Amino acid sequence: MPTRPLFRADPPPHGSESWEVHLEPHGLEAAEAAALFRTLLALPGWRQDTIQLYGRTHPLPRLHRWFALSSQTYRWSGLVMRPEPFPDAL
Q1: For each of the chain's 90 residues, which pLDDT tens digit applies?
Q2: Model's pTM, two decimal places?
């Protein structure tokens, strides 16, 4: 599988206005994307948390985890995601 850089070699400073996000709709061929998905899904540590809605507990309809270069936690809907280092596949 060919490797592509995920981040710029010289990222702008945190908090600057120069961060940009670009969508690459065809960044991976279908077979390459499927292989990457299988590799990532096979990693241990995926979570399926629950959330409270209208007084009832519901399982989230997805597996998730937080990969980050920094030690910054990510919070959403009452969940706290602690950062993990990026796996080699990413």
Answers
A1: 556 565 666 666 666 656 677 778 788 899 999 999 999 999 999 999 998 889 999 999 999 999 988 888 888 888 899 999 999 998
A2: 0.64
Residue 50 belongs to a domain: yes
What single letter denotes the amino acid at residue 41?
L
Q: Please name the residues in contact with 54: beta carbons below 8 A apart, sequence gap of 6 or more.
A: none
Which residues face 80 on adjacent strands?
75
What domain range includes position 48?
30-81
* Structural domain count, the chain: 1
- Quote the tokens at residue 18: 């120069």
